[in-house]
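Notes on consecutive records. When two proteins share a document, each keeps its own sequence and its own token line. Never mix them. Below: protein one.
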Amino acid sequence: MKKYILPFVITGILTCCSVIKSQAQQDSTKNINISTSIFGKQDRDKGDDKDKPDASKYPRSFGGITFSRIDWGFSRLINDGSFTLNENNEFLEYKKASNFGFDIAQFGFRFSDQFKTYISTGFEWNYLRLKHNVLLDQDATPLDYSYPDDINYKKNVFTSTYLRVPLTFEFRSKKFRNGDRAKLAVGAMTGILIKGSQRLKSNEQGSQKFKDNYNLASFQYGAFARLGYDSMGVFVKYYFNDMFENSPNQDGLNNFTFGLTLGF
């Protein structure tokens, strides 16, 4: 199924970029709103300014380059519905796990003062600070690992990097007295693997960094929700797919993340 979904996602991204370019070229003749967003001012509606003649015209489009929806939080691995890893995955036990990501481009439509939908793209990183003295094997399928006897790792970080493509449905309240609003966003997300890496530090071998896909899922998908006020909020994400592919011992291992979001 993945081999059919991946081309669809890539085609969608290219189509989105093409539409943004086309809409920008038509802006001067069709009076379409194309806005650049930074820190939560996406589609900082010109319609919010009631002195504008097009203030009540819906739907209207928006899009362009952005730096928003900056997520920073924690991750938890879920193994067959439990936060406790089974014996096949104990080598992935971690001291700390974190998630970081942001959007860099978007295109969407505002259908009313309270509702809009948009597709965006950006990057996302997941970090596992491994507890055990484990070295992941490169170019091994299925996923394999070893425990070096002569090395004691002071730092052992396993990282995955994805191009993320979320589809968002966002609702906002009417303005409060101070002009701010409460917001709720829900949607579906997909991601394409860019790389995996393991960073190590020990007295015996110093700092090391290895790059490999480590059988990480080449395509990830899930659901998310954001709840906030003005440009600040909280987020939660759950990835439906297994974290690894072509690795039967890791079947049923998923990622769950939550934390703070800025530029919402």
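Protein two starts on the next line and is unrelated to protein one.
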Amino acid sequence: MTFIFVALSILLLVLMIVWIKVEPFIAFLITSIIAGLFLGIPMETIATSIQDGIGDLMGALVIVITLGAMLGKIVADSGAAQRIALFLMNQFGERRVHWAIALTAFIVGIPLFFNVGFVLLVPLVFSVSYQYKIPAMAIGIPMLAALSVTHGLLPPHPGPVALVAQFNADMGTTLIYGFILAIPMVILAGPLLGKWPYFQTMKVKPLEVFSAKPKPVEELPGLLNSLFTALLPVFLLITLSLVKLNVAEESWGFGFMVFVGNPNVVMLVSLIWATFSLGVIKGVKITKIMEGYSGAVKDIALILLIIAGAGAYKEILVDSGVSSQIGTSLEVLPVNPLLLGWLIAAVIRVSVGSATVAALTAAGIIAPLVTSGQSDPELMVLAIGSGSLIFSHVNDGGFWLVKEYFNLSIKQTFLSWTLLETIVSMLGLAGVLIIDLFVS
């Protein structure tokens, strides 16, 4: 009966978000209260459980996600992303323009949220399409693949960061595994898929209203500065994680490495550097930079609320004992826990639409298998992240973003964006299972 209540609570969450169009944060709170009542949590402690769930999860995430949004904002506004894109286009040339677009989107997509990176790079795709007489979707697919993979698998994006916190995984190790997966995923689902004859013959005319004017070249920051600043968080996280492995725990240096390698500290250092290297040194007033940061925080407010709501629902499952029961029951199934995590996230993704909601909800259900040591926490982050990307359709904002910007029909969007997301998700699962063979 307990499992039925859990299934009904998930169904209720899906119905409120998809059919009634309730804001996900509110839907999570309502679902958490109802689930708590039916699962036997005393009424006087339900509110406390919800508060604790939100506090525990947000305490680990809010700094990284907020600073990440600010970093993405200054990378975009300063023209650093445009500088990186122009350099790569010049280096690759017309014959390998698909690879240039993919690499550009991959680099830009690491510090930028999907929507920001998409809006930033779409004008580049359209201009390249016009210049080289290439169908827009043929080079749009590599861009979308790279942005999607970085969004689903690599910190500092909200989903991966939240999963790292949920499973107490190591951020640096997750990044290393994520890069091992992401590169072949982007290649297969990007430039190679973009050469499929269907995309080469797809005739669409992107709407001009979405083609923002780029900055004059003379106003752009230097290439080295742009690359270093955009990738500084990734560089620091990976480098410090590797260095920490060779430092004895009893030495004074270990404590220092733990401190400076903390994702919150890394993001703060990176943002301070970006503020000066891309802003103050270029003559931008600090007040204008801070206004941009404020706008970036407003853009991610709803994302933070969704994460908070998912934390409340997770805590209800934990406090009711259901989470442990589910973990115990799943232990006897002849299914790899990584496959199970991917499958749960995939089902919720198709039902709800939001990759972040799917990832965090799946994490709350699968957590006992990770905490009991039955699965590698870093690989579980990537398995659930991959599952949360599958089959984007009409209940996903990304579906409509792609449709409207590229001026596609519903059918064309399914055969391009939805197909791409499904391929990315399946490749992610395959890659996680292969890595698991070597690290388990």
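For the record: Residues 383 and 429 are 6 Å apart (CA to CA).
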